[in-house]
Amino acid sequence: MNMIKPEKVKDKAESLDSVYTWSTGVSTNNRLVKASTEELLAEKDGRMTKGMLSLYDTWGASGVGMILTGNMFVSQEGKSRNGNLVIFRDDQGLAEQSELAKRIQAHGAKGIVQINHAGRQAMAHTGFQPIAPSAVPLEGYGSIFQAPRAATEDELEQVIDDFVESAVFLEKAGFAGVEIHAAHGYLLSQFLSPLLNLREDRWGGPLENRASLLLQIVDRVKDAVSETFLVGVKLNSADFQRGGFGEDDSLQVIEWLSEREIDFLEISGGNYESPAMMGSESTQKREAYFLSFAERVRAVSSVTLIVTGGFRSSSFMDDCIRDGECDLIGIARPMIVEPDLPKRLLESRETVALQARDRLGIKTLDNMLQTFWYKRHIASIAQTGQSLGPRASRVWALLTEIPKVLWG
Ligand SMILES: Cc1cc2nc3c(=O)[nH]c(=O)nc-3n(C[C@H](O)[C@H](O)[C@H](O)COP(=O)(O)O)c2cc1C
After folding, report:
1. Partner of 207 at 20 to 30 A CA spacing, among 64, 221, 316, 405?
2. CATH number, domain at 73?
3. How far is the CA of 106 from the centre of ligand 1 (A)?
4. Residue 408 resides in a domain
5. What atom in ligand 1 is closest to the CA of residue 184?
């Protein structure tokens, strides 16, 4: 693979608290990024709520340099569950999204919306039969998710249009950029997977075809927005499934994305069936579990790199930036438990995020339970500006969240 020429202008002294500047002149105040966490604060129909705005008042004031919103959906039929925000491209939507952009960026953070289509990872309570590359149902969740059907050619063209229109609309609303979600087993990630994409047309077969939905979206979004509007991609290093999308495939896709001069790449891994994004014994060799893959990315591309997953201590984060292992550091769960953590991370060289007791040790239950538990905290920040703290009840999280999963 060819080394892609550097696009970014680096500051001389690189540390967690140093500015990061792109070649277009856009910059972030420091290297900390609030990684996406689904808020589940929207109205049932996907509209914005006051809670959503209040949540981002708190995170916006945290001192973090860049904020990636939780995934927002490019269409109503493409959402993952009720409570997800849908990007309504109408006057009301523009007023609401403009207000959100303002709140997120009130203290200087760059606000980036993560744009997504759930594909088969859509809960049955949404009432829509999901589209996917092929009719391969999700395993291990009983009837919570509905079996998908293979998308038609017209539907895929509509998906591309929805991503492009959403990006253009969000630029108009005042956001600094978008992150196209191609990780964690959602639609674009499903297309990349040889296990889930069994198509025999131009969207299936060799990796080049499987990547073409993502690459066409990137090309068309970049053509449609201005040069200073950041366009990033979240991509799996691997799906962590035998025979699935693996590291070598991912490196090839990264090379194609780098040729397109995306503004940033965030690496993660896994999906609902294999939730490696939350860390697992096989991935948790260092504090941040995708760093060994980041080293492979650095060898083939000089794209601005965000690594997310497992970062907890300021000294470790600072070392990673100083050593050039990545350009920006994503933190998700620590900012849910301690919404003001970034200030301490940036001021001190010794701060360690509070460790939440978020595992029971039963793999399938743990994934759901963790998500429930963190969502209770997000709801609390939205209501009171405070999280529930690391000792909040897990049983209560289970009791309150299960009905929402089943019935929306
Ligand atoms: C409650 C919750 C919601 C999440 N929602 C999203 C999401 O909307 N989009 C996404 O890309 N990742 C999502 N993630 C994954 C995080 O962005 C991140 O990759 C993961 O939590 C690992 O980072 P951490 O160790 O800093 O928490 C979510 C994680 C949690 C805990």
Report:
1. 221
2. 3.20.20.70
3. 23
4. no
5. 11
| Range(s) of the domain holding residue 231 | 20-356
- In the numeric block, the tokens 């069936």 are attached to 273
**Greatest extent of the chain over all pairs of C-alpha atoms, in Å:** 55
Regarding the beta carbon of 333 and ligand 1, being less than 6 Å apart is answered yes
Residue 270 · residue 247 · CB < 8 Å: no
260 inside domain: yes
Which one of 38, 55, 112 would you pick to mutate in the ligand 1 pocket, going by the greatest count of ligand atoms within 8 A of its CB?
38
Query: Ligand 1 in contact with 371 (CB < 6 A)?
Result: yes
HSE-CB of 92 using CA atoms within 13 angstroms: 6
In the numeric block, which tokens belong to residue 203? Answer: 């969207």
* pTM recorded for the entire structure: 0.94
Q: Is 374 in the pocket of ligand 1 (CB under 6 A)?
A: yes
**Ligand 1 centroid vs 154 CA: distance in angstroms?**
31
Q: How far is the CA of 332 from the centre of ligand 1 (A)?
A: 6
Q: How far is the CA of 211 from the centre of ligand 1 (A)?
A: 23
Q: Which neighbouring-strand residues pair with 68?
A: 112
Give me the amino acid identity at 134: S
**Cβ of 386: how many Cβ atoms within 10 Å?**
12
Query: Going residue by residue through the chain (408 aa), what tens digit of pLDDT does each one get?
Result: 444 444 454 454 799 999 999 999 999 999 999 999 999 999 999 999 999 999 999 999 999 999 999 999 999 999 999 999 999 999 999 999 999 999 999 999 999 999 999 999 999 999 999 999 999 999 888 888 999 999 999 999 999 999 999 999 999 999 999 999 999 999 999 999 999 999 999 999 999 999 999 999 999 999 999 999 999 999 999 888 888 999 999 999 999 999 999 999 999 988 888 777 777 554 455 678 899 999 999 999 999 999 999 999 999 999 999 999 999 999 999 999 999 999 999 997 788 887 766 566 666 667 778 788 898 899 999 999 999 888 777 777 777 877 787 777
Number of domains in the chain: 1
CA distance 371 to 268: 17
